[in-house]
Amino acid sequence: MRVRNYNRNVGKRVLVTGVAGFIGASVAARLLGEGHEVIGVDDLSMGRKTSVPAGVEFIECDCADNDVVKRLPRKVDQVFHLAGQSSGEISFDDPIADLEKNTISTLNLIRYGIDCDVERFMYASSMSVYGATADAPIAESHSAVPLSCYGVGKLASENYLRVFAKQLPSVCLRMFNVYGPGQDMSNLRQGMISIYVAQAMNDNKIVVRGSLDRFRDFIYIDDVVESWMRASTRDGVVGKSINIATGVRTTVAAVTQMIAAILPGVAIETSDPTPGDQAGIYADCTLARELLGVDSDVQLSAGLERFINFLQR
User: Which of 63, 154, 260, 265 is packed most tightly, with the most Cβ within 10 A?
Assistant: First the structure.
């Protein structure tokens, strides 16, 4: 990220849900590195306890449980809510379970945040809220008509936070395709780049479900973490939904070719698309630049090289 002047909180007590997952663990590590006290929550249904950074006070529980509020500490300054089911494809397997993981959990934590009078509630939303879009940069003002149960749940959570805005200051970060070290390489139903890299490394081929002409906006994990940190401190962000992306349109054909260039000999095949998949989407990042002062520094080719080198250690 290109660093601009902004205020940092010092010595906060922060609750991070989904702390054993890819983005949650990365955010928690950054918080610890900046001197904050971190209480981490995860039910370990998808995350791994070994991923929880050393120094986190860990609580194993499901944020969708009715009694979760009773199990959490009463004094925290901020909540970073990253827990949830994160696959559009998987959300069709059991829409009720997806609703519980992604929306009931948020309602429980809204109640918790209000009771504890937290100063800021940070919510992990998704590009999936937009649904079908034109081949143009998508700003936060674009209509939100999700195509998957997952997207519906994410949008519902954003709306619940809006309803309770007067009681709970919140920020919704609509993350696009995040990739990088820490992703679960065994989950072949979530994370486009991690799926392709895992297939390339394990099978020497990439099977693309859907058209190679589909396009996405891929952002490296370090840039995402920086955006979370800035959104937790910046003035003017409360009540906003903000795209966290690069603004770069990249086709599936291009990203698979980049992977094949790093891992020579990898074949690329296609098969039937997944349900609820977006044909193409990339972000207008104007709001993130204005409110967070961020620009993505990690180009996709460099990020892929860094990611694959990490996995080959």
Answer: 154
Q: Which domain holds residue 85?
A: 13-179+219-246+281-297
Determine, yes or no, domain membership for 185.
Answer: no
Instruction: Please measure the distance between the N-terminal and C-terminal CA atoms of the chain and give it in whole angstroms.
Output: 25
Domain membership flag for residue 274: no
pLDDT score of 6 more than 70: no
Q: What three-state secondary structure class fits 304?
A: helix
The share of the chain scoring above pLDDT 70, in percent, equals 96
Neighbouring-strand partners of residue 80: 16, 122
Distance CA 293, CA 242 (A): 12
User: Total structural domains in the chain?
Assistant: 1
Residue 188 has pLDDT above 90, yes or no: no
Please indicate, yes or no, whether the overall pTM of this predicted structure exceeds 0.70: yes
Residue 194 belongs to some domain of the structure: no
Q: Which two tokens stand for residue 23?
A: 């983005």
For the cut 50, the answer to whether the pLDDT of residue 4 exceeds it is no
User: Is 228 inside a domain boundary?
Assistant: yes
Report the DSSP pairing between strands 177-179 and 218-220. parallel
CATH number at residue 29: 3.40.50.720
Res. 304: pLDDT tops 60: yes
Helix/strand/coil for 22? helix
**More confident site: 278 or 31:** 31
227 Cβ partners below 8 Å, 6+ apart?
Answer: 1, 173, 242, 244, 288, 292, 294
pLDDT-based confidence at 9, cuts 50/70/90? low
Beta-strand pair 13-17/37-42: parallel
